Amino acid sequence: MNDLVERFEVAFNQIHQHLKEFNGYPKNDNFVELLQRSKLKHSVIRVHFDLLKQYAKLRNALVHERIRDDYYIATPHLEVVESLEHIKQTLDQPPEALEFATQPVIFFKDTSLLTEIMAAFDQQGVSQFPIYNGDNEFLGLLTNDGIVRWFARSVNQNLVNLTDITARDVLQDGLNPSIEFLSSHGTVYELEERFERSLEEERKLKAVILTESGKANDAPLGIVTTWDLIKVDRRNEDE
Q1: Coil vs helix vs strand at 65
Q2: Within a 13 Å sphere around the CA of 53, how many CA atoms are in the beta-carbon half?
Q3: Using CA of residue 182, residue 184, residue 189, residue 195, what is the dihedral sign?
Q4: Smallest Cα–Cα separation from 20: which of 11, 33, 29, 12?
């Protein structure tokens, strides 16, 4: 029984340490308050939030309501200890962002014809393609929404002939959405922080492109949109 208590306290304290780290080691390091703050940023915490709040109550009973040093008013069941240890393990070794990305990434050159790209939208069932120039420099993300807006402007200007229109023509129309880059070895927490920061800055982040180095001009290995973040919560719920 004491062994279960010890395992519970070790796992709980290590999770508490992660919460402090997530929040920049604030002066007020109350577990539940840190939990509340972290819930908004990290999927593991968000999925297990209610459970961790209950474990906090059990931990308080263990620490503050002992009858004797070797006798506890409450003790955790084995499945509770194993559940807490599993959460702790996930925080210790978070999955890589690439696990939740759309792969492989289909991309086009700036000289690609718009008609070709529109056909790919229909065939691939995706809503955006990265665009690169001949030197493999990233130029922007061409989205189906962007093409619709470009069409709207072109109709107003009586320009509807698509014969020679290229990806560059549409990108130069000033409809480039916000994109960020992250190393393919980055964690899912780093990925979530990018989207969370964009919300705080009231800037709509369309996607995060994953490359080997995290630099824009490396080959794209995966692309993550806000819809892909749903996979993160679903995975944690399944686990």
Answers
A1: coil
A2: 11
A3: positive
A4: 29
Residue pointed to by tokens 């993300």 = 141
Q: What residue type is 226 in one-letter code?
A: T
With a threshold of 0.70, does the pTM exceed it?
Answer: yes
* Structure-model confidence comparison of residues 125 and 89, the more confident one: 89
* Contact assessment for residue 45 and residue 35, using Cβ atoms and an 8 Å cutoff: yes
Largest Cα separation within the chain, whole Å, is 86
Name which of 216, 239, 238, 226 is nearest 100 in CA terms.
226
The pLDDT tens digits of the residues spanning 208-226 come to: 999 999 999 999 999 998 8
To the nearest 10°, report the CA torsion of 173, 174, 176, 177: -130
Question: C-alpha angle 32/34/40, rounded to 5°?
Answer: 110
Strand partners, 205: 178
Is the peptide bond preceding residue 95 cis, with omega within 30 degrees of 0?
no
State the DSSP string of 131-144.
Answer: EE-TT--EEEEEEH
- Torsional sign, CA 38, 42, 46, 47: negative
Contact between 171 and 114 (Cβ < 8 Å)? no
Please give the structure tokens belonging to residue 110.
Answer: 């700036």
Q: What count of other Cβ atoms lies within 10 Å of the Cβ of residue 116?
A: 11
Residue 122, Cα to own-chain centre: how many angstroms?
Answer: 27
Q: What angle do CA 116, 121, 122 make, to 5 degrees?
A: 100
Residues 8/197, Cβ–Cβ less than 8 Å:
no
Task: Map tokens 């499945």 to a residue.
Answer: 79
